[in-house]
Amino acid sequence: MIPTRSLAAQSGFFKRSAEELGRLSKIAWNTEALHTPTKPYVMLDFQDPETVQSCKTMADRVVGGFSTASIDYEPGDPSSNTPPHARFHGSISTKLPDNWRVERTGYAAFRNKDRGMWLFGRLYWDVDPYAYLALRIKSDGRRYTVNVQTDSVIETDIHQHRLYSRHHRVYQDAYENATQQDEPGRLQSLEDEDLDVYPAPRGVPDALSEIPPESTIIGSSSTSTTTSGTTGWETVLLPFNSFVRTNHGFVVEPQTSLLRQRIKSIGIGLTDRVEGPFDLRIHKIWATNGMSEAEIEEERAICGADALPVDEGVQSGWVESNKKPKGTDNQKSPNAKGLKGLRSEWDE
Length: 348
Prior knowledge:
Blueprint: H1 5-8, H2 13-29, E1 41-45, H3 49-53, E2 55-59, E3 68-74, E4 85-92, E5 108-112, E6 117-118, E7 121-122, E8 132-138, E9 144-150, E10 157-162, H4 172-178, E11 233-239, E12 244-247, E13 250-251, E14 263-270, E15 276-288, H5 293-303, H6 312-316, H7 339-346
């Protein structure tokens, strides 16, 4: 592909091309394509103000609603180990406009803009070798959703996953929906009830349930409390194969796997329709196969006691080896972390 004058004139064309060629060269040099990569693939690094500026916000104001959404760059604070990050904030309103065609409001979201072109065509993220989408966030507990758009046949298709966090709040209506088949009087206060007692509402995929399901999320102990941990920051790992295909907010059939080789955009939305302000902080978003030793120093500095442990799969490189580490035997624990330990679970 030979860039035309208009194509080459696009802002950052040669920079994007150089960065992508450099990344691919490193992969080839390190032979990462021949085995499962252990290094993270950063997709959106909000420590860079330009990354924040490259995102766009959306809200129901486009149809006359009254919700607001902004995404701003927030500098870091070394004294509290707070990293530079993006602040996604605003207010949700369910007030309807004077337009009889609009029947529902109360949403806000952001996503990255089109990544543009490079020497070999449109630029996509290729996360095929990775198992998880990782997000380092500081949540206010509202029910956010992670949205991933790919270069699929149907452009309006979005793959979604609920962003469960340690601060995830479950509201009364979610419990009532989930327990409508239960005996009257079983529902107790949100503080006293054990979330595991109640399944997700029927017909709702686990990844989109209002109530955090067991084992859908890795790396976060979801509770109904609003405070937890030492810093408020946490790293959430969402399995790529748990994302649910939707279109205009509705789950569609047949379900298809997320096209990992051609991801166009990543964003976060809020559609809980609970009136009031929201505030979500995002440090970075990346593809990974688990927490590696190279990442653990930053992880512990930011997340404190809530830091994820080093993933055993990443630590061993997830490659077959005839060398046996000292103090271990050849038998792998069925509950071991990493690709081998979870492969049977993913294949179900």
